[in-house]
Amino acid sequence: MRKKRLAGKKAKKKYSIDTFYRVIIFVVSFTIIVIIMTYDQTIDDSRFDVKLGDPAPKDIYAPFDFSFVNEALTEEAKRFEADQVPKVFRVDKTITDAVMNNIDAFFAELARLRTVSGIKAFSDELLYLVTESSLRALLEYEDIESFQTVLRDTVATLLGEGVVSFAKKVELVNSDVSMLSIVRDTTATDVALQEILSLEEVQGKIDTTAYELFPRERKIRYAFTEIIMNSLKPNLEYDSEETRRRADTVYANVQPVQESIKQDEAVVQKVAADVKQD
To answer: Where are the beta strands (DSSP E) in 126-213?
Structure first.
């Protein structure tokens, strides 16, 4: 009988211990579940169901220092630098050679006429460069070789610097172009647009040169201006391919625009819902 009572006590004690452990396990498990649920709720509260352009529901601060490439500002910088590349114009040597050949042919015919007494044949062939009165003045001019030399030098200088048509210069001015890259043979030089003359602007420069060279010979001055103005042709040709190649090179070499954010710096600021977004 006594043994039965001892066995019953032991069974009750074991049951009590098992129950205690079960309670402990339940309490611990419940606590862990509450913590997990609370943590998940905290995470969910920090997520926003928004899209680009929506007002931010709260301020967001950087958790640490970091840097990033601002793609929008980088693209803006690339385009700006590419737009600064001067347009490329080439001196067309074929036009220069053709103009100089016409002038040489004119003076060759003039030299022939100075040995004969005929102006009609010359007038029919080359009178497009000068009026008949200028032609007669040249036939009578004694120092014709010096005249020819200085005229050729003047034309060569003008064409070497480059001449554009009036319409092209107006187009460049209206496009806010201030600088051109002039390519002569294999050498490129940046030149201010205002220094490049159109055919119409050459007239004043030639008149000044003629007066300096022939101050007392009005008819010779007029002939000098006539021959040059009737011979000159625009010889600057726009090289769109080279311009684009240079712009692409500059575009590609622009460094990315880096921006830095410090820890605790506001990266997004809350906007009131009733504030109208642009």
So the answer is: 163-164, 179-184, 187-192, 197-198
